[in-house]
Structures are given as structure tokens and as C-alpha cells.
Amino acid sequence: MDKHVVVIGGGVAGLECAGRLGRMGHRVTLLEKKESTGGHAARWYQLFPDRRPGSEIADYLHKLANHPNVTIITGLGVESFSRKGEGFHIKTGGVDFIKADVIVVATGFDLFDAAKKEEYGYGIYNNVITSAELEDMFRKGEILTTTGVEPERVGIVHCVGSRDEKTGNCHCSKVCCVTAVKQAIEIREHLPATQVFCFYMDMRMFGPYYEELYRESQEKWNVNFIRGKVSEASENINGRLVVKVEDTLASRPLRMELDMLVLMSGMVMSKSGADLAKRSGLATGKNRFLAGLDHHYGTNKSAIKGVFYAGACIAPMNITDSLSHARGAALEVSDYLKKGIDS
Amino acid sequence: MCMNTTMQTMKETGKKRIWADYQKDIPDDHYFFVRSCIRQTFFPGSEQFFLNFLRSIGKDIYEDPEHTTCTGIGYHGDVVPFDTIMTVVARHFSQATAKGYRNIAISCVTSFGIYSEILETWKHFPETLEKTRESLFRATGREFEVPEYIAHASDIIYKYRDEIAARMKYPLMDQYKGKPLRIVEHIGCHYAKMFPKYGFGGAEFPHVLAGMIEAWGGEVIDYPERRHCCGFGFRHYLVQANRGYSVANAKKKFESMQPYKPDLVIANCPGCTMFMDRWQYTIREMEGTMYGEGGLTGIPVLTYEELAGIVLGNDPWVLGVQYHNVQSDRFMARMGIPFDRDMKFISKEGERLSEPEGLMV
Hints:
Chain A has 7 helices and 18 strands. By secondary structure, chain A is α/β, with parallel strands linked by helices. In chain A, the strands form 5 sheets. A 5-stranded parallel sheet of chain A has the order 3-2-1-7-18, with helices on one face. Chain B has a 4-stranded parallel sheet, sandwiched between helices. In chain B, strands 8-7-9-10 form a 4-stranded parallel sheet. Chain B has a two-stranded antiparallel sheet with strand order 5-6. The model of chain B is unreliable at 1-9 (pLDDT under 50). Chain B has helices at 2-9, 12-21, 37-42, 45-56, 72-76, 82-98, 109-124, 126-140, 153-159, 161-166, 189-192, 208-215, 235-238, 243-257, 270-287, 304-311, 316-319, 329-335, and strands at 31-34, 61-63, 103-106, 149-152, 173-174, 179-180, 182-186, 219-221, 264-267, 301-303. Chains A and B meet through strand 13 of A and helix 1 and helix 2 of B.
């Protein structure tokens, strides 16, 4: 109980790891730079594949982390840390440093800035929105264009900032395909008369019940899936969006008018995580996420003894995998605390 | 009404952010000028205006009489290999080096794209630079320095657009309606689509011509096929069997811009200026379709220098605006520019020249 673990980041992985460590009997402080915890999941209306509200996961995590051994400090970002003896000094945005014996980095991911894919016109054309902004609309219960009308035709672009060498992101963000399927169904549920078109490269339904959701979206909800990348979006004289797509199955170019275009922004290394890594000497991979000690059995460990990783700071993950990875981190930390720095 | 609503709702702040991301340094002075094969042949007044304008504001711009084509048309037509065009361009650089110039001002967008491609190739594959040095030396005994800056001529006019605005005699205003003239800007594909960082405003929402139109009082039209190729496309035009494809691309653009009632098109690429003009004649001959006001007049297509020249009050016939197929008479009348139609085809010596057939007036 005399050892002190600091978890950096209060999203899904950070809360899970802190809660698990607290329950194991360790003293934990969780630092979150924002004013509230819960991370990206807290913003999500419903989760795939079972469509449970995102708030249920947030409730579960807050209950788990609400433990006498766990102190949660929000509104306090971490700038860097450095070795002091067998432990660490953590420099925060506050006045003093925090001492830690172990650090768990759980800085998560940022959503790719869709404005960088200039050809889609995000931030320029009205009614080009991101998947996260569509979740906001679902939570409000209003899916409306900027002129306040329900869209008749909605396009969903997969792989925005993922699997895209031009943006320097070769990785797959994993969750966008199934998010697109889920959001397409939700649009059809909210607006039964609205047509939905998904523009995809490959459908990567890797998780349990994802494939079933994909099938349901076609059989029950008549979502149209078109294999091809959107090359550009523009606006016509009526303010309607016009997209150009190459339909690679039909082997022909396609031009389509839409009322709304939803961009599936991928996951990229969080800026705060990248800054922390740079200032504190943590290794990053080619994908700019934090690099674990071993790709197979050491993904929770960093090259610095006593510093561990939890969740999507090492690679894109869904919530299920983030929770599992955070539990793995808790186990590694507990093991380390028993054996010490020479383990 | 609908059209104005669209214009107002589009988020200008987003464009301004992109424009801010794609800025580049343009040297203030001492340019080595390289001409365009198409421009110096079909509308030479544009290049002459460019030289005259820079010299009128006290800039040094040098033209080497031994400068040649960059062979870009052959390169994109698949008859000139990359090693050859690198050596030809290296010869241009050696001419600039010999005269003490490090800033290249490029008249042609094809050449600009080629210079950009070659400089990037040399940067990423230094062995190709060494090979080019050897090839040039073996063939000509010449040596060269890699230029410090390359700028397209439209970049330089863009740089001085506010100076032009300050001296402007005829702003881009419709004198009859008291409203800004509505202008389509068309950017050559090879200006920034290959290397967005080389273009003002990048590849998707270039600012280089839009900035001139705004500075001179006009309204820029954004229409769905704005980014589409003019249809020249080298092999599309050069291979006769493909010309239908070339015309179809231009038609797609005109159909898309027509509802916005554009008064003028300006382009920064020789091929685009020529084909967006000439294909209007072809489309009329092929199917009877015309664009422009009431579908009757055609839409005039000018170079940015010609536009700069007329807003500054230069004689339009000296600029050579009459040598495009679609005539600009109505456009200039709307600007309030006085001109004498009878003087259109009179030479400097006062001799009456033969009038081109099939002009769209």
C-alpha cells in the first residue's frame, strides 16, 4: 500500500486500470487533463455491436474507479516525467511535481482531423460532418442539415485518415467500419425515409457480432454499400453536396448528390500522448503510437522500467480490447510492484 | 436567390484556414523567365504583359534567347523519357546559373509541374541529380546550380495583386448592375495537384487566382466541377482518337458552371486557357450547345495577365484578348472599358490582318 501508481489519462483504459489496481490494494492517482473522465466513449450515443448506450460503459467505469484507493484529479494535464531513484517525478500543469513509483500511460487517441482530407471539404461545405458530430446529433435526437431539414440522402465515408499514406496514417483504425454500419442503421431508425450510402475500401468486421450487424444493415435496413473511395466533395447551386466516387465493383465512376456526408474519422496518436512521449523519452512506432516492449507479449510494457501502457495509446482499439488491455496493464503493474525495479 | 444563399452559407473560414496552410515564399526580384510553348504561340500578349508589368515596378527579369521548350508535352505524351527531360531542364538551370539567377519564373503550368517533379526527385533521390549533372556535362559541357526558388508566373502576379488593385482603372464590377462580376477560376492540374505545397492555397482550394479576383473586385464562383481537368490531358488531346474524351471533360465543366451564370473564366495554365476556349467552339459545332449569357454568347476565357492588363487599363487589343475564340467584348463593356472593335485586327504598323473564322462574339 506504500507504493504509489499514477495513471495518466481518464478514458476507458485509464479508469479500468486505475479501478482494477485500486481493487488489488494499490494506491492510485489518476490524472485527467480534461474536466471530466470517460474519454471518447462518453460522447457516443450507442455502442456497437449490441447498441447499448455509451453512458452505460461510462457508468460502469466510474463505479469501478470509485474506490477508496483511487484518487481522481481532473483538469490537470501531465507535461513530462523523469526518473528519480527507483521512482519518478511527474511534472504537471500544476505548481508542483507528483511522485510516483509506477506510471501507467493511458493517454488514448485523438480523432483524426477530418479537415486534413481537404478533398472532402470538412469545415468548408455545410453538411460535411464527422462520425463524432453525428453521435452528438443522435444524442440530441435530431438529425438535421444546417438548414434545419431532415436529410433525404446521407453518405458515409470510411477510412478518413486511416489506411491513407497521404496523411501518413498507414494503419487501420479498426472501429470505423463497424461504427459506419451502426450509424447507418441508426440513421435509418431515426429517419426511415432516408437513404444511406457507405463508401468503403474493405469491410473489416473483426469483432464478435460485427458481421451480423453488417448483414442486418443490408437485409433489414437497406443500407447501400459501395466499394470505392470518395475522390472529392463539392456543393452545387442548391447547396446540396455532390460527391465523386469510383465504384470499383461496377468499374465505373459515380457522381451522386447528397444532403449530408459523414466522415469516419480514424484514430491517431493523441497529441498529449505524443508530447509526453517526446519529453519523457518514450519510444513510438512508425504509426506514431507508443511502442510496447514486445509486439506480442509485452504490449503493456515500455522500455523504461516502471512505466506501463494501457489502451489505445499503443494502437487503435475498440472499447472491449481497451478494457482487456487495461486489465493486462494492471496485472503487469501489480507484478512489478511485488518484484521491484530489478525484476 | 438560391445561388446567393449557397454562396453565403459556404464556410469561408475553412477556406481561409487552408489558404493559410499553403503559403510559400516568392522572391522579390531577379527572376530568370522561362516561356511557355503554347502561350508564346497562341496568346503572346500575356507573357509580354508579365514582363512589362514586372519591369514597370522596377523588377529585374531576364529572358535567355537560347532557352528551349522543356519538352513537357512530349514527356506527358510518352515520347520523351524522364532522364531526357531532367537533362533539358538542367540545361535551363545552367543558363540561369551562367547569368547569375537563382529564381526561376515559369510561364507554363506544365513546365512548373515538371520543374517541381524534377526538384522533388533530386531531393529524394540525390543519385538522379548526379546522373543529370553528368548527362548535361557530357552532352553540352555545361554545369548548373539547383535554383533557390521556382515560382509560377501566376504566383508572382498573385504576390503583386494588391499593387495592381491600387493602380486599377477598371475594377471587376458590372457597371450595369452595380455588382461584382462573377468569375470562374480554373487552375491547371500540374500547378498543385502533384505537390500541394508548391501552390498558393494547395490543391483542393487554390487561392492563386481566387486571390486576384477578390483583390480586383470580382466574385469567385465555386461550382461542383471546379477541380475537374479542363480536358486537355495531353494524350487525351494529342491522340486524335481520344479527343472526344477531351471535349467531354470540358463539356462537363461548362454544364456544371453554367447555372452560376459566370461572366468570365480565367486560367493559369496554357492548355486550360486554350482548350476551355476552343472547345466551346467545338461543342457548338458538334451539337449546337452554347454557354454564357442566355446560352448564346459563350463564356470568355482569359489568362490572369490579360485580366490584370485590362483592369489596369491596357489596350485590350495589344494584350491580345481578341485572339481567343470566345470574344470578351461584352465582358469588357460591362466593366466600362472603352474599345474600338474595328481596331481588333490591325497590326502595330496599321495593316489590317486577316480575321480568324468562327469567332464567338
